[in-house]
Amino acid sequence: MTEILRYAAFTSDPAGGNPAGVVLDATRLDAAAMQRIAREVGYSETAFVTAAPEPRRITLRYFSPEAEVPFCGHATLATAVAIASRRGPGPVTADTPAGVVELTTEAGPRGMTASMRSVPTHTRPTTAEELELLLAVLRWSRIDLDPSLPPHVAFAGNDHPIVAAATRGRLADLEYDFDALKQLMLARGWTTVQLVWREDPRTFHCRNPFPVGGVVEDPATGAAAAALGGYLREIGEVLDVDEITIHQGVDMGRPSRIVVVIDPADQQVTVRGTAVPMTSS
């Protein structure tokens, strides 16, 4: 029988953060079996350790309830913490479909914390057509946008459009066309949409629609957080080694906290957060 662990990522409270399924031994599972388990678990993603050739090196695959995805940050963080709970904290190297991700875990007063060093990030401005289509399905207008943070498509394992709201109220009022956004994202190869509002230079509030995974919204998204960090560096918002804090899931009643460390001289970023076991599904 396959053991399925359940963790809440980017929180120290099992009732907060983003739930993730974790299967530490998926060596005998094929893709169809992993997809079936992910659908039964019902979280936005479940991570599967498909190989572990060394105690501190693993191969990961990720499945949403509807499809396999190249990378998932919160499920990777949950996997690192699950491994640390059994083998003790320390480094773990994860081979993922998106590339190699270096992980480190350490015990702290709020639980086990993991840091993920992303694959190299890159970003580009959205085209005029992309922005028009995005705003239409989000039911936003151009006056809703923050002109200091131009819309981009950013990558840190997956592609994520980044759209910045001018006000916290605009971010809070999220009622998009689920089917239309899903079709747009499938056509463009986008995994989630990173909607942000900047409270101050180091504090961001985010919401993350994920219709391609069959999920209206993710309460914490490590891959999109890494993409946001790379985006801020590339548009010149980070001039020295710095870190930002992302608050996500608040509007869903599952608050999460994601820390992103950004170095302007480095194409990679580090995402850090806490994960805790969930007592039930």
Describe the SSE topology:
Blueprint: E1 5-9, E2 18-23, H1 31-41, E3 46-54, E4 57-63, E5 68-69, H2 73-87, E6 91-96, E7 99-108, E8 111-117, E9 122-125, H3 128-138, E10 152-155, E11 159-164, H4 168-172, H5 178-188, E12 194-200, E13 203-210, E14 215-218, H6 222-234, E15 242-248, E16 256-262, E17 269-277
Parallel strand pairs: 2-3, 4-6, 11-12, 13-15
Antiparallel strand pairs: 1-2, 1-17, 3-4, 4-5, 6-7, 7-8, 8-17, 9-10, 10-11, 12-13, 13-14, 15-16, 16-17
Report on this structure.
48% of the residues are buried. The protein is globular and about 50 Å long. With 281 residues, it is of the alpha+beta class. The protein folds into two domains: 5-119, Diaminopimelate Epimerase, Chain A, domain 1 (Roll); 122-269, Diaminopimelate Epimerase, Chain A, domain 1, CATH 3.10.310.10. β1 (5-9) and β2 (18-23) form a beta hairpin. It starts with a strand and ends with a strand. It is built from six helices and 17 strands. α2 crosses α6. It has an eight-stranded mixed β-barrel with strand order 1-2-3-4-6-7-8-17.
